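User:
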Amino acid sequence: MLLASLPVATRDEMHRLLHGTCDPSFLSALHKALADDHGPHAAKAGDGGGQLLHRLRLLGETLPAADRLLDDPARLAAVHAWAAVADPSLCLAALVHHLLCLGSVVQLSDGRGEHLGPRMEALRKGRAKGVYLITEAGQANSHLATRTRADHDPATGEFVLHTPDAQAAKFGSAGTLDVPQTAVVLARVFTDGTDRGVFAFVVDLTGDDGLLPGVEVSSPLGLGALPLDYVLVRFHRVRVPYAGWLADGAGIAGDGTFHDPAGSCERRLQRTLRVGQGLWAIMPAVAAATTRQAAVQAVNYARQRRTQGRLAPGVPLLAYRTQQRAVLGALADAFALTCAADGARTVWTESLSVPAAPAGGRAGEMGFTPWAAVSRPLAAYKAAAVRLAAEVTADCRRRCGFSGYLDVNRLTAYHGFHHAFDAAGGDSQLIFYDIGRSLTEEGAPAPGDTPSPPPAASPHWWPAIVRRHRERLTRHLSEQLRATDPSAPFDAWNPLLEDVGLLGEVYANALMADDVIRTLDAIHDHDLAQALRPLAALHGVMAARRWSGSLLAHGTLHPADVRRLPEVADELCDAVAPHLPLLVEAFAHPADIATAPLAAADHDTALRATLTWTRGGTE
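Assistant: Predicted structure:
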């Protein structure tokens, strides 16, 4: 084992790179929880709900107590990242359960522990499954126009939760009807017929005997890319106690007077949705873990698989430059995502120490969507991470031939997870539109003398290029916007949206590029830095190749620069190659977590070991 032979200081730095502040004893407990296939609630035929609760309980036992769930972002990130490597569907269920459902209660409940404390512990201990119901299936951008109602009844103090029509039905993973389910439901509060904005409510959907009165669910909705128990949910005048209202500082006095520190319905929506910051902060870690595993498997395949092509019969796939650029480039992108995961956790950790913005406070103004106004950097991290992870895992799958498409190797599951999350958790394209719109309105600094970037083989080249590109694209869009009629915003923005979305994506990629440099600068071990620098530079070259059209269109790069990128990529692949055994060992997850044959020392033999054979009879 190469890692075991390294100096302790080097191993510690590699551990911090991959796992942040998580200590080895926690990782050992997490490993055991995910590898545990036994116990009194283990999987039985037809026992999907019970099995899921058992697995959520095992994960919950590795986390802090329910009321301190958000105290350790690094631990939260590791739990969900490892779960994604083991089973992407489990990861999605856990993200909804811990970060959106339980996280809403922790952040928005105003400490109403007497009523909600037992529910919180039931969720943490896996006695109930957590659900988050926000999207209304009948219209686009339903987050901005929630129509599910929660009417306050002054006679009882309760709220009456109601779905006004079929279009307002909620979409979510609430079809596990054989176990207790507790949902956080977003609904528009009305008092005395007045709209008070969108709040979250804690609502039990099912009990031990199935659906509770007033709750209606559809037949299952299949989603092959990310299998889970999706249904539509409607409420028929379900009564929710006052304590089930996650009021977040708002309240209704005895005389019916309503008060809300948010100050407006728009700011209220932002405060209610701030629970999404946890999801966005964790998704880069999930993307990094699954992409590292996908890249390790693709490298493993390329090293073992020998071709019989006439160009060079018998050589391994990894001898081909095209394969090197693809699979070592995937390893480089996985490293960049790992750096971004740390950057996102840092932003979230800092945000948790700052009170939610009241009226006139720190919150941004909403544009096309609420997401960037809740947190521009965290929304950008989520969108960029899942999009890059989807691209990289798809390419790794393609580079592994038919083995890449086998379910047992999980590359299709990893790709499906991230591809689905391009729309889930805040639509990535809408996030990019919104960030690009804000940057365009803010404008770019006046052009000045720009220093020449370092050579393309330097890790610092891509951060310099992407910053320059952001400035050029911002200036171009700002000039176009100034030439439009401000009284017709749709006509002004509509033709610009494609480039506006690109600007938002450039902003997100610049965050990731800066995280890579920050990570490299923090590495003290010389040998480890030598292994990571070419990997960081290769990520930049791969990113520039993906962005070459836009970079050329705005003059950020010239045709000669782009023509040279394959040559630079080959130089960097040669620089990475001596460190490849160490990088593959460090980036891989334990064999009983990532059980794919493609991860084995002999993937062909490992695949055959999963098969049974049937031989026809002989005469």
